[in-house]
C-alpha cells in the first residue's frame, strides 16, 4: 500500500440507459382471472414494437422498453383493452385501441391492464 498513489484528475463515467422494465398484471374484468397467452405490445414513434406474453400465474407480463412515450395495445385477438394504469380501479368499460405509456422511471413501471372478451358483432 505504500506504493499506491491516487490521481488528482477528475474521472467521469457516462451511462447509456437502453431499457426499463414495465411490469403488468393482466386481468379479464368479467371474471377477475388472468388472461394467459394474451399478447400486449408497445409501439413508439420510431416504428419499434415490443411484445410480451401474459403468463398464467397471476397474469404477469413484462416489457423491456427504451425510455420514451409508447403506445400500449392488446394484440389483435379475443380481448379488448379497457385500461392500463398504475391505478387498478379505473372503471372504463369502453374498448380502447391503445393508451400512451410514459417510460422514464429508473425504478421501472408497474401497471394493471384491464381487458374483456371481445363482443361478438
In short, what is this structure?
One of its GO terms (molecular function) is UDP-glucose:glycoprotein glucosyltransferase activity. This protein has 121 residues and is an all-beta fold. It is 0% helix and 44% strand.
Question: Could you explain the architecture of this structure?
Answer:
One of its GO terms (molecular function) is UDP-glucose:glycoprotein glucosyltransferase activity. InterPro entries: UDP-g_GGtrans. It holds the Pfam family UDP-g_GGTase. The protein is mostly beta strands and about 120 residues long. The relative contact order is 0.27. The protein is built from no helices and eight strands. The strands form two sheets. Strands 4-1-8-6 form a four-stranded mixed sheet, with no helix packed on it. The mean pLDDT is about 90. It has strands at about 20-30, 40-45, 50-55, 60-65, 70-75, 80-85, 100-105, 110-115. The protein has one domain: Immunoglobulin-like (Sandwich).
Amino acid at each position: 500500500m505504500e506504493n499506491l498513489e491516487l490521481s488528482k484528475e477528475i474521472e467521469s463515467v457516462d451511462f447509456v440507459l437502453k431499457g426499463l422494465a414495465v411490469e403488468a398484471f393482466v386481468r379479464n374484468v368479467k371474471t377477475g382471472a388472468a388472461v394467459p397467452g394474451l399478447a400486449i405490445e408497445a409501439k413508439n414513434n420510431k416504428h419499434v414494437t415490443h411484445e410480451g406474453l401474459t403468463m398464467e400465474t397471476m397474469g404477469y407480463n413484462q416489457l423491456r422498453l427504451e425510455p420514451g412515450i409508447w403506445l400500449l395495445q392488446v394484440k389483435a385477438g379475443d380481448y379488448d383493452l379497457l385500461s392500463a394504469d398504475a391505478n387498478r380501479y379505473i372503471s372504463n368499460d369502453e374498448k380502447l385501441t391503445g393508451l400512451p405509456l410514459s417510460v422514464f422511471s429508473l425504478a421501472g413501471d408497474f401497471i394493471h391492464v384491464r381487458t374483456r372478451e371481445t363482443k361478438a358483432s
